[in-house]
Amino acid sequence: MNKLLMAAAATSLAIPAAPALAHDTGYSHRHRVENGVQYWEGRDGRYYCKRSNGTVGLLVGGAAGALVGRAIDTRGERATGTILGAAAGALIGREIQKRRSEARCR
């Protein structure tokens, strides 16, 4: 009985999201894959690819920067080093990921 209720609950959550997934993106269904990058042909005949916005790089860089900043700042509460390290790491990580995405999507 519990499995039936869980399946019904999961279905009720998925049904309202289905129309939102079926919106028109302006791209045709034709696409190609080159070197692991997927390209879509737009209605204007040009090819487009999805570029990364750098979110994963921002998060990973922020976490790594916070750890490095905390290790460098050995005086007092070490909050200053953690905050500055997280901010610098987040910016650096985001830029690295965005540049890698741009190089692959040209």
Structure commentary:
- The chain is built from four helices and three strands.
- With 106 residues, the protein is of the alpha+beta class.
- Helix 3 packs antiparallel against helix 4.
- Keywords: Lipoprotein, Signal.
- Pfam families: Rick_17kDa_Anti (PF05433).
- This is 17 kDa surface antigen.
- It is a lipid-anchor.
What structural class should be given to the helix and strand makeup? alpha+beta
Number of β-strand runs = 3
Per DSSP, the total helix count is: 4
Which strands sit side by side, in order, in the main sheet?
1-2-3
**What number of domains?**
1
Strand content is 15-25%
Q: Let me know the largest β-sheet.
A: 3 strands, antiparallel
Poorly predicted spans: 18-24
Main location: membrane
Organism: Tsuneonella dongtanensis
Membrane topology: Lipid-anchor
Protein name: 17 kDa surface antigen
Task: Furnish the topology, listing elements before pairings.
Elements (H helix, E strand, L loop, with lengths): L1 H13 L3 H4 L5 E8 L2 E6 L4 E3 L5 H18 L6 H26 L2
Antiparallel strand pairs: 1-2, 2-3
Keywords: Lipoprotein, Signal
Main location: membrane
Membrane topology: Lipid-anchor
